[in-house]
Specification:
With about 290 residues, this protein is of the alpha+beta class. The chain contains 6 helices and 7 strands; from the N terminus they run H-H-E-H-E-E-H-E-E-H-H-E-E. The structure holds adenosine-5'-diphosphate.
Length: about 290
């Protein structure tokens, strides 16, 4: 009898200890999770603060830079009228020219930075993506021709491809892709292959059933090597001597802010296809007669 009672009590004791251990583990784990979530929230807050500060700083630097650039330009004009030795005048003009170029370069860096890291305020309206691409092609045609690139347009079947977008921002994202494509074809690629740039618009049904509008920017450039592909969207990653490395991250930011995505397919030695996909606007219900 005593043995049975001891056994039962022993069982209870073991059970109680096990429950206590499990409870401690559960409490510790939830505490750990709460602390980790708090840490993440603090880090996100700090990141947002730093983002706002750097954006503000870039704006603050940009304004005096404009003044410096303008004054350098005025000085350069005044030097032309100075009654001094022409050699001396030439030297001064060259120095001011360097100053102006560097000011322009800094302004360019800040503009790119603000586009990537600054506040992105979208004004979305239903727009026909085909019409937008057609307009952009008209605008970009001379620039492509200047680099010996043939720009072609493939708008697909008739009918509007409507999406709710901020047209100016989507154009900016597409322009970044077009510029990259032209630069890639000018810098590398097989010289025996024609330099062709295709802008193609297509409706796309995603695997989850959502309707998208895709705009492809397809080039016949050198393609992208796997090691470059891994870093392609990292801010400040560039393989160009004068590149900022912000074109693709900015394009992706814009597209993702629209609930879309930026796809890339590439084949070394053949070319690259970047595609901007944005959700198609739901078809409007037919109006009752
Ligand atoms: P940047 O143009 O200033 O270098 P991007 O972020 O736009 O910055 O591009 C990053 C890098 O991606 C480029 O330096 C280039 O190596 C590569 N890249 C982008 N587009 C293409 C393309 N169409 N073909 C080949 N390489 C490309």
């Amino acid at each position: 009898m005593i043995e049975v009672v001891t056994g039962v009590l022993g069982g209870f004791a073991v059970g109680a200890i096990a429950t206590a251990i499990v409870w401690r583990w559960v409490v510790r784990r939830s505490l750990g999770r709460a602390q980790a979530a708090e840490r993440r929230a603090r880090a996100a807050e700090r990141l947002a603060e730093v983002g706002a500060m750097t954006g503000g700083l870039a704006h603050e630097i940009k304004n005096p830079l404009s003044t410096i650039g303008l004054n350098a330009q005025l000085l350069q004009e005044s030097i032309e009228e100075l009654a001094i030795n022409p050699d001396e005048r030439g030297r001064l003009a060259r120095r001011l020219g360097t100053l102006r170029r560097e000011v322009d370069r800094l302004r360019g860096i800040l503009t790119d930075f603000l586009e990537f890291a600054g506040e992105l305020r979208l004004e979305r309206k239903p727009a026909d993506v085909r019409a937008l691409v057609e307009e952009l092609a008209d605008f970009f045609h001379p620039q492509a021709a200047q680099h010996g690139v043939r720009l072609r347009l493939d708008l697909g079947a008739d009918g509007a491809q409507v999406a709710e977008i901020d047209a100016a921002h989507v154009k900016q994202a597409l322009l970044n892709l077009l510029l990259n494509a032209v630069q890639a074809m000018s810098a590398g690629g097989d010289p025996s292959r024609p330099k062709e740039l295709m802008l193609r618009v297509r409706p796309r049904q995603d695997a989850d059933g959502s309707s998208m509008v895709a705009v492809h920017v397809i080039d016949t450039g050198p393609g992208i090597a796997p090691e470059t592909l891994r870093s392609l969207f990292k801010p400040y990653f560039t393989t160009k001597s004068g590149g900022t490395g912000l074109g693709l991250p900015t394009a992706r930011r814009i597209v993702e802010a629209h609930g879309g995505r930026l796809d890339v397919h590439t084949e070394v030695g053949r070319g690259t296809d970047f595609a901007i996909l944005v959700p198609a606007a739901p078809a409007r219900p037919a109006r009752a007669e």
